[in-house]
Amino acid sequence: MQQFTDRQIEIMEAATSRIAKYGIQNLTIKTLAEDIGLSEPALYRHFNSKNEILQCILEYFKMEMKNRIQGIVQKKGSSARDEIRAIFNSQLQAFVRKPAVISVIFAEGIFHFDEGLTRQVSELMDMMQGFIKANIARGQANGEYSRLVAASVLTTIIIGGMRITVLKWKLSGHSSNLLKDGMAVLDGVLKMINKE
Question: What is this structure's pTM?
Answer without folding.
Answer: 0.87
